[in-house]
Amino acid sequence: MALPTIDDDSLAASLFEVFRCRGYEGTSISLLSEVTGLKKSSLYHRFPAGKDDMAKAVVLYVSSQLHTYIIGPLLNDKQVPEQRFNTMLTTINSFYHEGKKNCLLNVLSLGEKKKEISELLNKDYSDWLDALIKLAKDAGLSKKEAKIRSEHFLIAIQGALVIQRLINNSQTFQNAMEYEEKLFFK
Amino acid sequence: MALPTIDDDSLAASLFEVFRCRGYEGTSISLLSEVTGLKKSSLYHRFPAGKDDMAKAVVLYVSSQLHTYIIGPLLNDKQVPEQRFNTMLTTINSFYHEGKKNCLLNVLSLGEKKKEISELLNKDYSDWLDALIKLAKDAGLSKKEAKIRSEHFLIAIQGALVIQRLINNSQTFQNAMEYEEKLFFK
DNA sequence: GTCTATAAAGAGATAGAC
DNA sequence: GTCTATCTCTTTATAGAC
Description:
The structure is a homodimer.
Chain A: H1 8-22, H2 29-36, H3 40-46, H4 51-74, H5 81-95, H6 104-107, H7 115-138, H8 143-167, H9 172-185
The first copy, chain A, binds a DNA duplex (18 and 18 nucleotides) through helix 3.
C-alpha cells in the first residue's frame, strides 16, 4: 500500500529548500512544481491560499525543526551549558550546510511583509533567544549580560551567513561560529 | 535652461531605494517607473541591458558612496583610529537609516547570481574590510587580530540589519553597533 | 489527490512617434 | 530623451476530468 503522494513533511522540506535559496519573490509556483514533482494545481489543492500558504507551511516546518533540534537541546538541563552550546553549533552547522544555505529569518523577512509570516518568524527568533539567555544564565552570566551575548550570537549567525554567501568562502561561517563560542563564554 | 530629465545620480539613488527594500526579484520595472517618474521605455533607454543594468548602476552608485563616505574617512591618517571608527558608525547609522533599511550586500546577493553584480559587491566588501584592517593595525592590533575583528564587525553589521528587520525593533542596530565598537578596540 | 487545460494579470522588453 | 502602444513570456491561480 504505497503512498500515492508525498507526505506533508517531505513536501514542506522540498518547498523549504527552494524558498531558502531564492527568497519569497524569487520562488515561482512552476519551480516548486518541478522540485516537488507535483503539478501546480496539486500544490494549490494542498495549499488553497496559494503561495503565501506554501511559505507559511515552510515557516511552520522550520519552526518545528528549530524547536526539536536546537531549542529543545539548548534547554536540556542534564548537560552543562558549554556542552549544550557546542551541540547547537554542530546542529546549526549542519542545518545551514556549513553556511552555504540561507536562513529563512533573513530571506522571508524581505520585501512586502506578509504579517502572519513575519509574526511566526519573530516568534521563532524570540524562542531561540530566550533559550540562549537561559543557557547563558545557567553558565553564570548576569541577566543583562546573558541577554546581550545571546542577541549578539544570533546576530553573528545571520551576519556570517550573509557574508559567506557574498564572498563565497566556505570557511567564513564556521570560523565565525568558533569565534562567537569563545566570546559567549568569555 | 532647466534640466529636462532627472540626472544619473538622482536616478540611481531612486532605483537604489527600491532595490534595497525589495531585493532584485521583488523589484519590478513598473515600480521603478512609478518611483522615478520615468516611463518604462525611458528607463530602458537609459539602461539598454534592462533590469540587470539598473541593478548594476545601483551597485556602482552605492560603491561610490561607500568609498567616499566610509572607506575614505576610515583611511584618513589625520585622525586617531578611535575617531575614525566613530565617524564610520555615525555614517553607517545614517546610511542604513538607523538600521531600518537593508544593505545591498545582503539583498542583491540572494537568488540566481548575476556574476558581474556579485563581483562588484564582493569588491566593495573587500575594500571595506581592508580599510578596517588597516585601521585596526593602526590601533595597535596584530595583523591576525586586526583581520578577525574587522571581519567580525562587518558580520555584525549585516546580522544586526537582518535581526532589526525581523523583530522590527528600532534600537537593535544602534545597540549592536555600540557593543561592537567596544569589542573592536578592547 | 493529481492531472490537463486555461484564464487573467503582471513581468521584462521593444517599436516608433514626438 | 521621453512618451504611447504593444509584444511576448511568465506569473499566480482556477475549472473540471479522472
